[in-house]
Amino acid sequence: xxxxxxxxxxxxxxxxxxxxxxxxxxxxxxxxxxxxxxxxxxxxxxxxxxxxxxxxxxxxxxxxxxxxxxxxxxxxxxxxxxxxxxxxxxxxxxxxxxxxxxxxxxxxxxxxxxxxxxxxxxxxxxxxxxxxxxxxxxxxxxxxxxxxxxxxxxxxxxxxxxxxxxxxxxxxxxxxxxxxxxxxxxxxxxxxxxxxxxxxxxxxxxxxxxxxxxxxxxxxxxxxxxxxxxxxxxxxxxxxxxxxxxxxxxxxxxxxxxxxxxxxxxxxxxxxxxxxxxxxxxxxxxxxxxxxxxxxxxxxxxxxxxxxxxxxxxxxxxxxxxxxxx
Amino acid sequence: xxxxxxxxxxxxxxxxxxxxxxxxxxxxxxxxxxxxxxxxxxxxxxxxxxxxxxxxxxxxxxxxxxxxxxxxxxxxxxxxxxxxxxxxxxxxxxxxxxxxxxxxxxxxxxxxxxxxxxxxxxxxxxxxxxxxxxxxxxxxxxxxxxxxxxxxxxxxxxxxxxxxxxxxxxxxxxxxxxxxxxxxxxxxxxxxxxxxxxxxxxxxxxxxxxxxxxxxxxxxxxxxxxxxxxxxxxxxxxxxxxxxxxxxxxxxxxxx
Lengths: 326, 256
Hints:
Chain A has 11 helices and 15 strands. Chain A has 326 residues and is an alpha/beta fold. Chain A has 2 domains: 5-225, Rossmann fold (3-Layer(aba) Sandwich); 230-300, 2-Layer Sandwich (Alpha-Beta Plaits). In chain A, strand 1 and strand 2 (19-30) form a beta hairpin. Chain A is elongated. In chain A, 44% of the residues are buried. Chain B has 256 residues and is mainly alpha-helical. Chain B is built from 12 helices and no strands. The radius of gyration of chain B is 20 Å and the shape is globular. The chains are: A alpha/beta (326), B mainly alpha (256). The A-B interface holds A 53-57, 75, 78-79, 81, 83, 85, 87-94, 98-99, 101-103, 105-108, 150, 154 and B 1-3, 5-7, 10, 13-14, 17-18, 96-98, 100-108, 254-256.
């Protein structure tokens, strides 16, 4: 992968009416990579993205896109980037093709160039047959495809995708992942926000985990998972046993083979150096406390484990998790 | 197409597939037609009375009896009608977030504001042109001076430009179309009432300045056939000021 820096932010911050959306965000995106901003709703992902596409002015810090400052050289930035918003930016009165024609004019493309790109993009997103229907009659997946085609029409050097598969069915998600990979193969730099762990894991070359407006971890999915070290032992306790969960966590805390323990609504996630050493100790402690284990398994760290380890909670959860470093 | 032309084409298409332009157009033309009819009937009655008194066909000034009052009443109705035409220009796009399509493209905000203004102005000029049928029909049955008619239309065109620019500003200030329309009504009525306030303050420098800010006096002179640079400057500068403010508002929203 090219190590040319395409995007760089330095201590970026944004405050809305006294509420801090993001703070001290510093990261680099290299040319040609798929970079993900992973975090729960309200983490500050979209704010970051909107600063980079010149829709928001940062309160503190600075950001450059292809060497252009997003505030002082906003027009230069807009000429080089494509943007696919989270919510429909589709004009209900225009057809799919008319949307693309309008964008061609807005980006000063020649008529021939616009027609050529429209034909190519409609084929790419598989909307050729529906291109002349009013966009308001499109399904959610079709609108998303049109959004992507709109983002790609200016042939941007960098494409920003804000939650590209939010609310889509599995088939549409897989198709969009394929488009993103296809664009990546063509050398395009892609920045996407997501709160889907599998999307971040399978699509991104590198990602930043954002929570509470701050970057909690940064690296490739494999680096982040390897960074945790060891494996994860998940213990699901039987019904009515949750009263003993704290006692079990305390009993395990401090054992040499155990690195950290997280309490979940159904039991414990225990990060261990070696499951072979840890499993007997876990079973022994549960037995000693007369704590009935319903299910136990172990696995290599997944991105959700990375997320929990760095933020102290799951990306989507109803109950707060307690993360206890051993 | 240039970006401005492309946005105008998009806006016009949006207007013509929505009922607003038809509703505003129908009401506008109906009011113009009814006013013209009322003043023509009134002029006819006056002619009959004069004929009874003088015993011969009376020479009536149709400019003063029909066209000028029609133009003056239309100025008042435009205050109510044009904000309905402009209320969606920015408010709807912001609410539906389609404005992001424009904001993230490499075109200037001035181009966006001008294109939005020109699209509604073209619609207004189209409607104004359709009202030309009234003086044309009148000219078949009577003779009158065409000069005040042309300047009267110039007055309406300039007044409309000022009102529409104010409406575009109001629409840029809010996401709610109804609020935009009321804001626009409020601003226009305020400017209208400045004429009365100026008169109350009398022939003082403050009174004259305030009276100058109202469109009534400038409009009245034009409908009488008097083209004064001062009046043209008033309308054009008001329009430019409103569009400049709209530009500043949209610019500030881009960064919020």
